[in-house]
Amino acid sequence: MADGSNALADKSRRRFLTRTGAAVALGLAAGVRFIDFPSARAESSAVSGTQRWGMLIDSSKCASGCSACVQACSDEHGISGHGRPQTDAQWIRKVTLRDNESGRETSLPLMCQHCENPPCVDVCPTGASFRRADGVVLVDKHICIGCRYCMLACPFKARSFVHENLSDQKPWSPRGKGTVESCNLCVHRIDEAKGRVPACAEACEREGHGAIQFGDLYDPASGVAKALAQQESQELRADLRLNTGVRYQNL
Amino acid sequence: MTPRLNFLGLLPALILLCGIAAAEEGSALLPPIPPPAKGEECVEPTDVMRRDHMRFLMHQRDDTMHQGIRGAKHSLVGCIDCHAQTDAQGVVIAVNAKGQFCESCHSFAGVRMDCFGCHSAVPAADPVSMALPERITSPALAAVRLASPGVD
């Protein structure tokens, strides 16, 4: 990486230059940026498969009883319930896993896992459920007929159906009766020119937990890709071979 | 007898003239449409927008939804940002409320629009302006990372 420094006689100077050169070369090769949010794409260009947005959730950092991510999601997308938990829309939920033998409890947020091979897309009869080139699984509500096959197909129970007329939707998050919806990875935020992390990750960070790390899985310089390369992680229902974009640690 | 006949002969011409005058003014052909609340001019000439706004919207909708292309000029949010009126108390009125920009023409033309079953009909109350969290924006952290690429 630092072949230009070979001719130098001074050993310590050479080491210094080698290190700096390596750092700079790695930075250039991997495209290290000054913020952790790599948005290589201009707002006006189409998304491409060179990126894949994803998350790494460390459940050991996720505090039981904290639901800041759920609240942030509701605020961001204007999701409010009617006091009917069975049918109210929910894009992200807190789940507690309990090991019956040891009694150990693990807390984690669960939302659309943004699979590479999404079952919801397979079963959609109209093409409304689709996977964007950069890995975000979305519902095109313009062509969703509300059949709810995708809700049945999803192994994570990540999707909701809107049963009632809505008002006061957020301009950046259109939602309406008769369509299915789920976590969209705050696509309006990540599409911005500067890019912002999804609301849940931001809220978790603000609460001081930092359990949700967001980034480009294909960018070796991103924090998520580095952590995935260096530490153990797992995907939920790995047996289904969905290659989820959301990964978990310390379950 | 003769003057009365003359008057009857002129009547069709008079009606025609009135018709032309009304058409030029536009008042007899279109309902009263509230003027845009802000902005100098529309993204396209008025006659083009009247005829083709639905095609522009449909085209951009698919580009944005499926390819993530943002910031193009034919945006529904853009329409609403300029055309939503505020009442005397300064409260924003929805563009699909009675007599407002979208509703006035659509009810006149007998065309049902279902945009606002899902889309907000008022501009964003609080423009999206939240900054990235401290840890993520910190240039100091980025500098550390650049100097020692092994440490995250």
Distance between the termini of chain A: 38 Å
Given this structure, which CATH class of the largest domain in chain A is correct? Alpha Beta
The appropriate CATH architecture of the largest domain in chain A is: 2-Layer Sandwich
Total domain count of chain B: 2
The span between the termini of chain B is 104 Å
Main β sheet profile of chain A: 3 strands, mixed
Radius of gyration of chain B: 26 Å
Provide structural commentary.
The complex is a heterodimer of chains A (251) and B (152). Chain A has 7 helices and 9 strands; from the N terminus they run H-E-H-E-E-H-E-E-H-E-E-H-H-E-H-E. Chain A is of the alpha+beta class and 251 residues long. Chain A has a 3-stranded mixed β-sheet with strand order 8-1-9. In chain A, helix 2 crosses helix 6. Chain A is globular and about 45 Å long. In chain A, 39% of the residues are buried. The C terminus of chain B is likely disordered. Chain B has 2 domains: 30 residues; 96 residues, no CATH class. Chain B is 50% helix and 0% strand. Chains A and B meet through helix 1, helix 5, helix 6 and helix 7 of A and helix 2, helix 5 and helix 6 of B.
Strand and helix layout:
The complex is a heterodimer of chains A (251) and B (152).
Chain A: H1 11-30, E1 53-58, H2 68-77, E2 92-98, E3 105-111, H3 119-123, E4 129-131, E5 137-139, H4 149-153, E6 160-161, E7 180-181, H5 187-190, H6 199-206, E8 212-216, H7 223-230, E9 246-249
Chain B: H1 2-25, H2 46-67, H3 76-83, H4 101-109, H5 134-137, H6 139-147
